[in-house]
Design goal:
Layout: E1 6-9, E2 12-13, H1 22-28, E3 30-31, E4 36-37, E5 52-57, E6 60-63, H2 74-77, E7 90-99, E8 102-112, E9 115-124, E10 129-131, H3 134-143, H4 151-154, E11 160-162, H5 164-185, E12 188-194, H6 195-204, E13 211-212, E14 219-229, E15 232-243, H7 245-252, H8 262-270
Parallel strand pairs: 9-12, 12-14
Antiparallel strand pairs: 1-2, 1-5, 3-4, 5-6, 7-8, 8-9, 10-11, 13-15, 14-15
Helix pairs in contact: 5-7
Length: 282
């Protein structure tokens, strides 16, 4: 449905000519990006997953679930050039890694003989919403013939907007807490986000000092566009920028800080390595 504000539901594009069996998709409540039940549930009905990945805001799609950035796992492939990796090493992908001072969404590690040789951290940031997307979701399902949709839900005009300012400030503060650690360890941290959020941050924050990406910098910004493609749309890396810990602090007008030993993080990653963390592109 090209007029719907719901662009992706449970990872399936709603705008394509060939549509899935929506009743089966909604019943399964599965996120195809992590092969688990969608974690975004209704507060009043926690047994129901909402499943909205991407919505239309204005004329363009906006990714509102960070797992939507995992499409084709391309974001990890784009991080590999920052990894010191030797032929014969294995690539492992560790999710939700706790580190001193916080956690990492993902850690891409080069491993040989069970030992971590190098790693890159990745933080995923979608857009936070204001209000509720539920009425739009229900209107879409009713339009495609889904049975049992309440008129109370479809008739609701409660708005759903994008909280640009809070999203941007929150992720910059989180990066500020972590990048000092990566800089001292001579490692790389990558923020994976949508190009529309980068545009907002460039306008509203001090971003003039960021430069075209160079490997020597510890902090990297990978901004992705959501472009039309066969099957609906796909993520495409549109811009790469980088800076150091001082540069992240300048974005917020803050002072850099934080310290940790390399062997602490290597130990944390190593403890999480299993056959299941081995990275594949499919």
């Amino acid at each position: 449905m090209k007029n719907s504000k719901i662009i992706d539901l449970f990872g399936r594009d709603t705008t394509t000519m060939k549509q899935p069996e929506w009743a089966a998709v909604v019943r399964s409540q599965q996120c195809p990006f992590v092969q688990k039940r969608c974690y975004k549930v209704r507060k009043s009905q926690p047994e129901i997953s909402i499943g909205t990945c991407t919505v239309r805001h204005g004329n363009d799609p906006v990714i509102i679930c960070p797992l939507g950035l995992l499409e084709r796992r391309q974001i990890f492939i784009d991080c590999l050039r920052l990894l010191s990796h030797e032929p014969g090493n294995e690539i492992h992908l560790v999710g939700e890694l706790g580190i001193p001072g916080g956690s990492l969404d993902y850690c891409i590690a080069s491993v040989r003989d069970g030992k971590v040789r190098d790693f890159v951290g990745a933080e995923l940031q979608a857009l936070d919403t204001i209000g509720t997307v539920w009425p739009e979701r229900q209107r879409f399902l009713k339009a495609v013939g889904f049975a049992g949709i309440s008129e109370v839900d479809t008739g609701s005009r409660r708005p759903c907007g994008v909280n640009w300012k809070m999203t941007a400030k929150t992720i910059l503060v989180q990066l500020h807490h972590k990048i000092g650690i990566f800089e001292r360890l001579k490692k790389h941290l990558v923020l994976v986000f949508q190009d529309r959020l980068l545009d907002y941050m460039t306008r509203e924050f001090s971003f003039d000092h960021l430069r075209d990406a160079r490997r020597a910098d510890p902090m990297h910004f990978h901004a992705y566009g959501l472009l039309p493609a066969r099957g609906g749309h796909q993520l495409v890396l549109k811009k790469e920028l980088s800076t150091d810990a001082e540069g992240v602090a300048r974005c917020l007008g803050m002072q850099e800080g934080g310290d940790v030993q390399l062997d602490v993080i290597l130990g944390l990653i190593g403890a999480r390595l299993t056959m299941d963390t081995r990275f594949t592109s499919v």
